[in-house]
Amino acid sequence: MAAVSSGRGSVWGGVLRRAAVAGAGAVAARAALRAVRAAPVAAALERVNHRGATVSLAAGPALAAAAAGAAALGAADRGARAAALTVGLSAGAVGLYDDVVGQRPDQRQAKGFRGHLAALRAGRITSGLVKIGGIGVASLVAASLADRGRGPHPADTLVSAGVIAGAANLANLFDLRPGRAVKVGLLAGGPLLAGRAGGLAAGPLGAAGALLPDDLHERVMLGDGGANALGALLGLAATRTLGRSGRIALLAGMAGLTLASEKVSFTAVIESHPALAAVDRWGRLPAAPAAPPPAAAPVDQRP
């Protein structure tokens, strides 16, 4: 009986610790959002979304900072803590760089991996290419830090780096409608809470959840900075949870989705399935009513 009670106490202790980390992430995200929106650079972060509404990219740096800090708080060891800070802050920084610099007229033409590679072949380095390279390097460093002391094969570290970078990119691919990237992050990252890296995942999930209402109501948007950071941190947690086979399978799946995104619109796929569309639209502002057709000109029916 004593052993059973001790086991239950350990389980509940883990649950409470993860809840506390998630709460810390949520509080930090709200505080960071207020700070960014009050900063002198706030006006430069305003963008027009898909509906023509003016929203702020302030959620990006706010989420990156809060999620990275909370992930480090919930990490189980020094290596994971350093990895979370490295990849969370780096992904957020290069993502924000792409958000800002990528709006320049000479940068807008390059879209997707193919577009950035085509620009490189033409001798131009795009902001998107800087982001891809930065996330790749940060993911490799983070995977190395997280694996330090565990003695994995170098190939394992490369697979982990691929998972982290792939998750960062995939989260960004879903950030095309209000709240979508956060919902995908919460649904995909939720199961990680029950694993051995649950504390590492709890912080980013709490931070993202705290910003979801503002995202859904089109007051803010994550942008590349927020989506990349959220995805990278959840990817890091996944590498600490899954074994070798699981990480390889996850990497293959993410690679497949990334390649598919070059040909298929995720938005079109989601909207063509009622269940996915319902989840996607939950909490979002209602669509603007269609404009009434112009009144027909009166017809002179006199003989």
UniProtKB/TrEMBL annotation:
Record-linked InterPro entries: TAT_signal
* Name of this protein: UDP-N-acetylmuramyl pentapeptide phosphotransferase/UDP-N-acetylglucosamine-1-phosphate transferase
**Source organism of the structure:** Actinocatenispora sera
